Each structure stands twice: as C-alpha cells, then as structure tokens.
Amino acid sequence: MRNERSWAVAGLVICTLAWAGNALVARATAGELPPIGLSFWRWTTALALLLPFTVRGLWQHREVLLTRWKHVVVLATLSISSYNTLLYQAAQSTTAINLTLVNTGLPVAAFIWSVLLLRIWPSVLTLLGTLLSFLGLLVILGNGQPERLLSLAFNRGDLIMVVAVLCWGLYSVLLRHWMLPMPGLIQLAALLICGVPLLLPFYLWEYSTTGGMPLTIQAVGAVGYTAVFASLLAYWAWNNGVRVLGPATASLFSYLMPVFAALLGMLILGEQLQWFHFAGGALTFLGLVLATRPGHAR
C-alpha cells in the first residue's frame, strides 16, 4: 500500500511537470496555432498512439463501458473535450504564469465539489498542507515581496481558465466517485474515444472561420509534446493519483505548476532562479508531504 502511494505521488509530480510545460507551449503558440485545433490534434494523436495497445482491453471491458457509458461521456466531456480546449483558449489572452496561477485553484474546486456532491471534508493535515503550499505559491508570485501581490492583474483569459479549473475539479471528484473497474490506460482510451468526436464539431467550426493547423515544425512539436507527455503520460498519472490518494489530495499537486514553470523558464528561456523560488518551492513541497501522509481522510 505504501509503495502504491509512493508511485502515485511520483506520478503526480511528473504529471504537474508535464502540465507546466503544456502551459508554456500554450502560451508560446498563442496566435500561431488555433486553440481548438491544437486540442483536437493533440487528442487525436494521443488516441492514435494509444489505441493499438488498448483495443483488446477495450473489448474485454465492453460490458462495463456499455453499462457505464453515461459516466464515460461526462468524464470525457469534462476532461478531454473541455479542460485543455479552454486552457488553450485562455492562453490567447493571458500569460503562462497566470495559467498556472489560476490552475492552483484546483484544490478549492475539488474541495467545493467534494463537499457539494460527496459530503467529504478534508482532514486537518490536508488543510495544513494546503495552507503551506498556498503560502509557497504566494512567495513565488510576489517575488518574496508581499506588496507585489497587489499588482497581479487578471483578464478575460484568466476567467476562461477559472471555468477550466471548475471542469477539472468536477472531473477529478467524479472520477473517484464513479470508479471504473478497469486499468488506467483502458479507461483513458475510452475517454479519448468519446472526447475526440465531441471536439470535432468545434474544430470544424474553427476550421471554417480561422483555418486549420499549419504544417510547421512548431505545430508538429507542440502536438507531439502535448499528445505524449501532457496527455498520455500526465492523464494516466493523474487518474492513478486520484484513485490512490483521492481528488482532494491529488489536486494539491497543482501548486507545483508555478514552481515547475519557474524552473522551465530558467532552462528554456534563460531566466534566473532567485531565493524566493527556492523558499516558495520548499513550502510547497512541505505542504504536499503533510497532505499526502498515509492515513488521512480523502
């Protein structure tokens, strides 16, 4: 059991790292790649890569999928069709740091949905861990200067991201509540089979109004990264983390996204790490250690 929790924690760390990179890709390609087109081809590519390895499993679990098809459709709509499409749309008018900042509202969204739908309240350790992680986030955002937090600005893209976070929080809670009795990759393949067709009408509308995806190195790289790392790897890790740790605890790992965004900014953009990055990151990790201790309520 402890080993399973350790793997779940490690997977969630990798997941948030991949999603921090996804936010940077979204912002870097804003204005160059159509947001719905990027989302559609990302998931279509992920489905094409995953399907050959899961066809047999999908057939073996066909009775469960047919019986629970309404659950599968709702989960696919909230995750595959909605969340990342909204994120890419939000990236058209906000910054990568704001994308990761608003995304840290996920623990609040998961908490609200857990209380409203499941009547589940977090433990004291979870609340304490949440507080420490949030303080770490504020240290990073304010560059170690509390007064700088007052100058943070939010716009239309940030509001779109709020809707995306509410969708993802609901998805995480329902994913645990409607636990599907099948391996994670089989479940992901089922969500992709439902989610991609749901995206198709919106992609066709975007194609008719603004044009399709350009065939460029930038487009291929963006689709490749998001399909493999931000989709297949990250979604499998997230779903496993929710299954093992619960949605409330798993959602706390969203606090790592600004930390990883700062690290990626240093590695990719040549930005310098400052003392407040280390201090904020330490508080964030300490909060996650407390929140993921075995034995607390989920």
How is the topology of this model organized?
Elements: H1 2-28, H2 35-60, H3 62-67, H4 69-90, H5 96-103, H6 106-118, H7 124-141, H8 156-177, H9 184-210, H10 217-245, H11 247-251, H12 256-269, H13 275-291
Helix pairs in contact: 1-5, 1-10, 1-12, 2-4, 2-9, 2-10, 4-8, 4-9, 5-8, 5-12, 6-8, 7-13
Spatial gap, N to C terminus: 15 Å
How would you sum up the major sheet? none
Tell the overall outline: globular
- Helical content class: over 70%
What's the overall average pLDDT, rounded?
A: 83
Task: Please report which band the strand proportion falls in: under 5%, 5-15%, 15-25%, 25-35%, 35-45% or over 45%.
Answer: under 5%
Count of DSSP H/I helices: 13
Contiguous low-pLDDT stretches (5 residues minimum) are: none
Question: Helix and strand string, N-terminal first?
Answer: HHHHHHHHHHHHH
Total number of strands: 0
Strand-pairing-aware structural class: mainly alpha
